[in-house]
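Any chance you could type out a protein's amino acid sequence plus the matching C-alpha cells because I've never seen that pairing?

——
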Amino acid sequence: MMTETIAAISTPLGEGGIAVIRVSGETAVQEVERIFQSKTKLTEAASHTVNYGYIVDPDTNEQIEEVLVTVMLAPRSYTMENVVEINVHGGVVSMRRVMELLLKLDIRVAEPGEFTKRAFLNGRIDLSQAEAVMDLIRSKSDRAFDVAMKQAQGQLSKRIKDLRYTLVETLAHIEVNIDYPEHDVDELTSNFIQDKCGQVMAEIDKLLKTASEGKILREGIMTAIVGRPNVGKSSLLNALAQDNKAIVTDIPGTTRDVIEEMITINGIPLRLLDTAGIRETNDVVERIGVERSRTALQDADLVLFVVNYNEPLQADEREWLQQIEGRQVIIIVNKMDLPNELDEQELAALAGRFPIVKMSAMLQDGIDALESAISELFFSGKVESNDATYVSNVRHIGLLHKARRSLQDAVEASQAGIPIDIMQIDVRTGWELLGEIVGDSVGESLIDQIFSQFCLGK
C-alpha cells in the first residue's frame, strides 16, 4: 500500500545560511517536480544528485526561491522511500513560502519523528537505533554523542540480538524435549537451561553496569551548588562556566532564584544549579528563592556544598552536613586566598566520606581538582574507552532488568525441578522483553509514543 508523501522543515527555524526541507514518499520526486523549474527534470535525475533551479508558484509562474534540490531514490535513502531535500536560503519567510507551496500539492506535514519512524517501519534501523538518533540530536557532550553514535550504528542492537539468539536456541531445545520426551532427559535439559540463561544473565549484568554512567552521559548530572549566603556559590558557577552567568557581589542574598547552566567536565555533562543562599530571611522574594534551593538540593544527583575558608563553620552548616548523608556530595572550601578562620579538622570529621576540594573560585584556582573529584565520584576517574557499549535509555534499562528477572525465574524453576514447559514461559518472556529493546516485539501504541518525542523534521 502506498504511503502518504510527507514534508517538514528539518533545520531549526531562524536565520542561517541554508535551511533544509525534507520530502519523503513514493511520489516525492513527482510532487516536487511540479513546483521546480530547471534545465533538468527531477523525475529524470539520477539518485543522490544535487540539482540547481528555482521553486516556482504553479499558479502565477512566479519564482519563489533559488534552490538546490537533492534527489535520493528508494531504497537508498534515510526512510528507504524516495526522498527529496530542498536547500533554501535560511530564513523564516523562505522556508514558509516553500512549505506552503508543497502543502498545496498531494503532500501533508510530517508528524514529529515520522521520517525516522518510517526508517524503522521500513526495516532500515531497529527501534534502539531510532531512539539513538534523538540522543544524537540532544547530546550535550562529545562523549554523549559518541555513545549515541555507536548505538545508532547498531552496537547495542547487535549485542541484544546475540542474546536473543542464545535464548532462541534454548527455546528450541525445550520444544524438542516437550515434543519428543523419549529422546531427551529432563536433567540434561535443566542443566542446558541453567547454562544458557546464566550466559545471557551475565551479559545483561555487564550492560546494566554501564547504565548509571550511560544515563549520566545522556542526561547530565544535575548538580546543585549550595551553602550559606556569600560563600561564593555564584563565583563558582561563573568559574566552571567560564562566563559571568550569575551576579557576584559582597552583599549576602544576591542570588534569589535558581540559575541553571549546562557545562561539560572531562566529557561529563553537568547541569549546574546556582541556588539562593539557604538562611532564615524576612524578605519574601529571597524566601521563595531559599525554598527553591531546598527543592533543587533534594532533586540533585550531585551536591557541591560550599563553605568559607575565612569563616568558622556555622551551626546551620553542621546541621546540613548531617542531613545530606547518603547523597553524592563534594565539599568545597572556597576563598583559600583569604586568611584562615576555618577549623579544618572539624570539617574533615563532619565530612566523613565526602571528598574535600580547596579552591578560590574568584581566582579560578582549584578548578582542576574539582573536575577530577567529580570524575572520580561518578566514573572512577575516567570515562570508559570508545569500545564500551553504554546503556543510556531508561526504557532499555527497565527492559533489561525485567528480562533478567524472568531468566532468573527460569533458572530457579529449573533448580527446583519445575516441569520444563513451565520454564519455557519464563525463557520466552525474557526473549520477548529483549525484543522490545530493538522493536521486534513491541506494540503500535508504544512505537507511536516513542516517535512522538522526536523533533519535527527528523
